[in-house]
Amino acid sequence: MSLDGEVMRIDRLVRLDDGGVDTWWVLDYKLNHRPETLAAYHAQLAAYRAAVQRAQPGARVRSAFIAGDGRLVESG
After folding, report:
1. What distance in Å separates the CA atoms of residue 73 and residue 76, rounded to the nearest whole number?
2. Closest CA to 23 of 76, 59, 56
3. How far apart (Å, rounded) are the C-alpha atoms in residues 38 and 16?
């Protein structure tokens, strides 16, 4: 996937049909046990989310980190 010419490698992209409304989850694996504390990680995930939103207009796009300790941490 790309955004403004920058190639992005999303770790996992999941599409769910939520009663006729597509919901896309952008999931980013991070070994750091507290990825939600690092601004650079949030910026990266926001860019991934923006790329998916641009590719899937009208769809709901959510994003989260999957931390090294197994937690799902929603971002944005």
Report:
1. 10
2. 59
3. 28
